[in-house]
TrEMBL record:
This is Sps1p. One of its GO terms (molecular function) is protein serine/threonine kinase activity. InterPro entries: Kinase-like_dom_sf, Prot_kinase_dom, Ser-Thr/Tyr_kinase_cat_dom, Ser/Thr_Kinases-Pseudokinases. The lineage of its organism: Eukaryota, Fungi, Fungi incertae sedis, Mucoromycota, Glomeromycotina. Residues 1-249 form the Protein kinase domain. It comes from Rhizophagus irregularis (strain DAOM 197198w).
């Protein structure tokens, strides 16, 4: 049926019932840590219709690899569903899908568990939309001593890239990405390579572009979910309640806009940018990429610090008409800056200004000016 980063899924029949069999790669020496994760899956699944049904675990008699027996979701996963049906999925339908998915995540968090791999490939349509693959986003031989991070980059909260542990808040971030995916029919950041540069951009606050037809109340909730600060994200109870008290007028207007954009061929998977060949949506080890992104971040941070050393001089350039640089000879440049010398100040003075004043002013920095160069700055 499908293959992920650490498993392959088959369809089978067990006691007259269709089931999904998830075979775990290289699981002959399954770790106690992973077995505990399976126990968590079973406990969370108990009497819970928001999470995909879990029957038990068995072993391949030939390869000795372990296999998990799950409820068969005949409707497939959310991403494939969107690819096939996006044009016909109204805003009301999208809201209903999210309500069911939020119920599944609410059930997981209510029992004090964390999903850790919350993306559209793990949202499955059985009788209703349900959450699947709880706790299974890692190799079966993984141990507590293994500090490796596994997952799908676009759905991972930025704090995880900084070394924080997966949490209910990081699940909520992933939920926000699924909200966005429902608006476009496309996976987030599908048009770029999923490498260290994408990790750095996510850490720097980059998020997918919100579509024109997205209702304001929906967009507000989505942006709260993917806030860079985990403490500012809503808890799943709040999300669940918000989705059930949505502003219907906004969704009616959004549906009209959605149909208009589809007619203009401006919305939907078939009209989106071509997916990048190195956009990877299966769970994988990410530590090497995170390390590279961290190196970029350190270099940028160092560069920013160097920009604000006390040897620099900064000039207020509000209402600038022009800045001219003229070469006088091979060794000297005359800098003509439209600024009165009385407005000159160094960094030590500037940093005492209030934040409000800093927002309202613009500056140009000229590094390491000596007295000779300062003397040739003239008022236009």
């Amino acid at each position: 049926m499908a293959e992920g980063g650490f498993s392959i899924i088959y369809k089978a029949t067990w006691e007259g019932t269709d089931v999904a069999v998830k075979k775990l790669h290289d699981s002959q020496n399954i770790s106690k840590y992973f077995l505990n994760e399976l126990r968590s899956l079973y406990q969370c699944n108990d009497d819970n219709f928001g999470v995909i049904g879990y029957y038990g675990i068995t072993q391949d008699p030939i390869t000795k690899e372990y296999m998990i027996i799950l409820n068969y979701a005949k409707g497939g996963n959310l991403h494939n569903y969107l690819q096939k049906n996006f044009i016909n999925i109204t805003w009301n339908n999208k809201l209903l899908i999210l309500q069911r998915i939020s119920f599944g995540l609410y059930s997981i968090h209510y029992k004090n568990f964390i999903h850790r791999d919350f993306h559209s490939g793990n949202m499955l349509l059985s009788t209703y939309w349900k959450v699947g693959d709880l706790g299974l986003s890692q190799p079966a031989n993984n141990t507590l001593s293994n500090n490796e991070i596994y997952g799908v980059i676009p759905y991972i909260a930025p704090e995880i890239f900084k070394g924080a542990a997966f949490s209910k808040e990081s699940d909520v971030y992933s939920f926000g990405m699924i909200m966005w995916e429902l608006t476009t029919g496309c996976k987030p950041f599908a048009n770029v390579e999923h490498d260290h540069n994408l990790i750095f951009k996510i850490l720097d606050g980059e998020r997918p572009k919100i579509t024109e037809d997205t209702p304001e109340c929906y967009a507000d909730l989505m942006k709260k979910c993917w806030d860079s600060n985990p403490s500012k994200r809503p808890i799943i109870n709040e999300i669940y309640n918000t989705l059930y008290t949505a502003i219907w007028y906004q969704f009616e207007q959004a549906e009209k806009k959605r149909l208009e954009l589809i007619q203009l061929k401006k919305l939907g998977p078939e009209f989106s940018e071509k997916p990048h060949p190195k956009a990877i949506y299966t769970s994988r080890a990410l530590s090497d990429l995170i390390s590279k992104a961290s190196t970029i971040g350190s270099m940028v941070s160092l560069h920013m610090k160097q920009e604000y050393i006390t040897q620099e001089y900064e000039f207020d350039i509000d209402n600038i008409q022009r800045l001219s640089i003229q070469n006088t000879n091979s060794a000297t440049q005359s800098l003509i800056v439209p600024v009165n010398s009385s407005r000159k100040r160094n960094f030590e003075e500037l940093k005492n200004e209030t934040n409000e004043n800093q927002k309202n002013r613009k500056y140009i920095k000229v590094d390491n000016l000596n007295d000779e160069l300062l003397n040739i700055i003239e008022l236009i």
